[in-house]
Each structure stands twice: as structure tokens, then as C-alpha cells.
Amino acid sequence: MLLLKTVMLETDWVLRSLYRFDRIRIADALMATIALPTVQCEDLNSVIKAIGWMRNGLDFADALHLASAKPAGTFATFDGELAKRAAKVTDIPIIQL
Question: What does each C-alpha distance from 4 to 31, 43, 46, 81, 88 come to in angstroms?
Fold first, then answer.
């Protein structure tokens, strides 16, 4: 079964918004899901990196977008706070728009 990154984003939103899970519990749930033997996760390396950054305080959606930007060589955002936090966790050049 292919697990898309967009499904991971929606899962995070539901667990956080509806069920009030904290970020560590969500990270544990996401890691357990991608570790299932029948699951093939889209862009696994980016998802794992994003989950790690989420554990350290980044919003999962922001972390996943940042991790997925690596092949592009830069990451652009309108969010000044995200730009500051992103610069602390990655070597990807950050552009604040």
C-alpha cells in the first residue's frame, strides 16, 4: 500500500485538531505507520526527516515542506518565524518572501 505525503499531512491535522494529540504522540503514530511491513511511504527520507523536526518543535506540515524542498536546492516561505526555525535545522538556503 502506498502512503502519500498528503495523507500524512491530513493524519497529523486530524490527530492534532480533533483528538488533541501532542506532537510526540503524533510523531510516534506516524513512525509506527510508516514502519508497517505493508506500507510503502512516498518520499520516505523526507517524511522521516520531517517527523524528526516535528519532534523538535516544527509544525509537521512546515517540516515536510522543508524536507521535500531539498532536491530544489532552496526553500521559500512568507513565514518569517518558519524561515528562522528552518535555518536552524537544515543547510538548504532559506528565502523569506
Answer: 14, 8, 12, 27, 27
Report whether 42 contacts 4 (CB < 8 A).
yes
Tell me the whole-structure pTM to 2 decimals: 0.90
Question: CB neighbours (10 Å) of residue 27?
Answer: 20
Residue 91 within a domain: no
- Structurally, how many domains does the chain consist of? 1
Cα of 6 vs its chain's centroid, Å: 10
The answer as to whether 39 is a domain residue is yes
pLDDT tens track for 33-48: 999 999 999 999 999 9
Note down the domain range covering 51.
Answer: 2-70
